[in-house]
């Protein structure tokens, strides 16, 4: 039986091939780390429940995507129905860090005028000897994109739960402030409780109602 | 495990039949294609499988027409853009298979050579990550040069466009699979439509990797035997059999009401329906094949695609 949930957030995993998107998800949802993970072909799925506050259950639905560029023609259509995006790079792979801006732009361009809540994740922090990206510059990039930054390792499970918690909280807050607006037709956020009705959303809804002649 | 149910005596008989076919291949292809198909359905003897795949796919002829080409490509350096992605995938193909278990071992080296050669052979296509498991399965059955030409045949004749830049062919085949499902299992079709589960979400890996990462190993080999003989329609049939037996009745749907539950079910298919004997039987005795899947197959020696 599935636990009762008040919210369901859909989160999409983004980043170059081999940055560790699937490993991070497997660590988080299954508590395992495998040395070799098959390259994702297409899209994969994971689910995890978190209690954000006492009594506030959130179901996180993850869409894991193939990192290779040519799969974007397939995965791009799933950006819009995601509330959150984990932008992953490999701390030991400079190029994957440099791709982040492009990933960010690709998503924001695709879904505009709508928004997504991002978290920047520097992954494989256990390989400190091979690090090619400094914490300061990653934080700078995060700030310029207006997102939070965290360093994780699926291998030693450090910060994994925290990273997903940060993103979940950020999505929840975006809902509270009206940066994200849940609607019937959008799969990014589903709620089993009435959503806070915001003045802006209300006005928009009224407008839409008027137009449905 | 493979071929476990085939008695040794039968296996020996099959081997000699296959040897006769391979030694008189053109004659058999011209006059007794149906018999070849039947024998592929029964399973190619493991000792001759690699050779048979090369004959069936036409890669043997292709190699003979292009003597020295692979060695030529093998000597070139390759585009670093592709080499980087290929290298990152080398240790991820069948990592528990003895051939690919050691980093930098001969299996991984050959895999690199084959995939690199393809990016030089078709620079406009480069490397697609779904090609790696295909090449790895081939390398388990034949040397690098032969595997290369067999990969070329798969990419160009069997599954054309699957691995190229925009992935348009795989998306189109996803739509075709879905419309075929409408005829084969209206219940499964209705359920997937209702849950808004786009075919691309479950069939991409199935089709692009020709089920090599989905099915148990003995089933993979039997499916590939039929695939090399009959072409992409086998991939469609396997996909339809799996969908029908997973989502094809209201009883089966009880435990996967939501979108995620359905995806989960398709991701972790029941071992029963993937089991070699059951699956091959279902694919062979495909009722509506002529009407439903005939459009995907225009007979003859080489597999052709739609119209």
From TrEMBL, chain A:
Pfam families: Ras (PF00071). The keyword GTP-binding applies. Keywords: GTP-binding, Lipoprotein, Nucleotide-binding. It comes from Cyanistes caeruleus. InterPro entries: P-loop_NTPase, Rab_GTPases_membrane_traffic, Small_GTP-bd, Small_GTPase. Coiled coil: none annotated. Transmembrane segments: none annotated. It comes from the Eukaryota. PROSITE patterns: RAB, RAS, RHO. One of its GO terms (molecular function) is GTP binding. Belongs to the small GTPase superfamily. Rab family. This is Ras-related protein Rab-39B-like.
UniProtKB/TrEMBL annotation, chain B:
The gene is TBC1D10A. Keywords: GTPase activation. PANTHER family: RAB GTPASE-ACTIVATING PROTEIN 1-LIKE, TBC1 DOMAIN FAMILY MEMBER 10A. One of its GO terms (cellular component) is plasma membrane. The keyword Signal does not apply. It holds the Pfam family RabGAP-TBC. It comes from Cyanistes caeruleus (Eurasian blue tit). This is TBC1 domain family member 10A. GO terms for molecular function: GTPase activator activity; small GTPase binding.
């Amino acid at each position: 039986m599935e636990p009762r949930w008040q919210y369901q957030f859909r989160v999409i995993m983004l980043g170059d091939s081999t940055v560790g998107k699937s490993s991070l998800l497997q660590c988080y949802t299954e508590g395992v780390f495998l040395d070799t993970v098959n390259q994702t072909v297409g899209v994969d799925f994971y689910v995890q429940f978190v209690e954000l506050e006492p009594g506030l259950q959130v179901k996180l639905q993850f869409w894991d995507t193939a990192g290779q560029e040519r799969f974007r023609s397939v995965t791009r259509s799933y950006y819009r129905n995601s509330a959150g995006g984990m932008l992953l790079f490999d701390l030991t792979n400079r190029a994957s860090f440099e791709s982040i801006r492009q990933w960010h732009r690709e998503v924001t361009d695709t879904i505009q005028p709508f928004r997504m809540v991002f978290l920047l994740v520097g992954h494989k922090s256990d390989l400190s000897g091979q690090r090619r990206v400094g914490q300061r510059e990653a934080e700078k990039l995060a700030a310029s994109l207006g997102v939070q930054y965290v360093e994780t390792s699926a291998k030693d499970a450090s910060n994994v739960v925290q990273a997903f918690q940060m993103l979940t909280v950020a999505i929840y807050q975006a809902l509270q402030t009206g940066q994200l607006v849940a609607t019937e037709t959008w799969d990014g956020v589903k709620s089993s409780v009435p959503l806070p009705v915001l003045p802006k959303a209300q006005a928009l809804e009224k407008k839409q109602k008027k137009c449905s002649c | 495990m493979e071929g476990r149910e085939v008695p040794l005596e039968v296996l020996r008989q099959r081997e000699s039949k296959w040897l006769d076919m391979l030694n008189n291949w053109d004659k058999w292809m011209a006059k007794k294609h149906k018999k070849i198909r039947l024998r592929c359905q029964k399973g190619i003897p493991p000792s001759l499988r690699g050779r048979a795949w090369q004959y069936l796919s036409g890669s043997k002829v292709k190699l003979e027409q292009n003597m020295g080409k692979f060695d030529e490509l093998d000597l070139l350096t390759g585009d670093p853009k592709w080499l980087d992605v290929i290298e990152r995938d080398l240790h991820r193909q069948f990592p528990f298979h003895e051939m690919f278990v050691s980093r930098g071992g001969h299996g991984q080296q050959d895999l690199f050579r084959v995939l690199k050669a393809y990016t030089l052979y078709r620079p406009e296509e480069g490397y697609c990550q779904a090609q790696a498991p295909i090449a790895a399965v081939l390398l388990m059955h034949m040397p690098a040069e032969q595997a290369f030409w067999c990969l070329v045949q798969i990419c160009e004749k069997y599954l054309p466009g699957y691995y190229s830049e925009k992935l348009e062919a795989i998306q189109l085949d996803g739509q075709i699979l879905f419309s075929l499902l409408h005829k084969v299992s209206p219940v499964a079709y209705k359920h997937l439509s209702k849950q808004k589960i786009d075919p691309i979400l479950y069939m991409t890996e199935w089709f692009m990797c020709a089920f090599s990462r989905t099915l148990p190993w003995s089933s993979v080999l039997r499916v590939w035997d039929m695939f090399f003989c009959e072409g992409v329609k086998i991939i469609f049939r396997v996909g339809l059999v799996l969908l029908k037996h997973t989502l094809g009745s209201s009883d089966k749907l009880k435990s996967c009401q939501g979108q995620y539950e359905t995806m989960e079910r398709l991701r972790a298919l029941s071992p029963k329906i993937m089991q070699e004997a059951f699956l091959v039987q279902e694919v062979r005795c495909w009722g509506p094949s002529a009407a439903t899947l005939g459009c995907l197959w225009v007979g003859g020696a080489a597999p052709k695609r739609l119209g």
